[in-house]
Amino acid sequence: MKQLAIFVKERRKEVSLTQEEFAERAGIALTVVRKIEQGKTNLNMDKVNLVLRMFGHELAPVPCKTFNE
């Protein structure tokens, strides 16, 4: 989550937006932006993806091998 926090904060600052402005443009609550930038781990992935889409990114499940393979 630390990498996500750093990514979002740096990109937001690159486009010169406050947390409030960014939240409004992303269509999410200010508290979501704050939680992401603080590296909180109890985040709603749909909300995280709304933030990441602002930068052309998205989180997706990564297929993993089962123990029987």
Q: How does this model look, in words?
A:
The chain is mainly alpha-helical and 69 residues long. Helices cover 55% and strands 0% of the residues. It is elongated, with a radius of gyration of 14 Å. Helix 2 crosses helix 3. The longest helix has 13 residues. The chain contains four helices and no strands.
Alpha-beta classification = mainly alpha
Cα-based radius of gyration, to the nearest Å: 14 Å
Low-pLDDT residue spans = none
Helix content: 55-70%
In terms of quaternary structure, the protein is single chain
Q: What string, H for helix and E for strand, traces the elements in order? A: HHHH
End-to-end Cα distance: 29 Å
Helical region count? 4
Number of strands: 0
Strand content: under 5%
Sum up the overall morphology in one term. elongated
* Major sheet size, sense and barrel closure: none
Entry summary:
The protein has helices at residues 2-14, 19-26, 30-37, 45-53. The chain has 69 residues and is an all-alpha fold.
Map the helices and strands.
Layout: H1 2-14, H2 19-26, H3 30-37, H4 45-53
Helix pairs in contact: 2-3
Name the descriptors.
elongated, mainly alpha, single chain
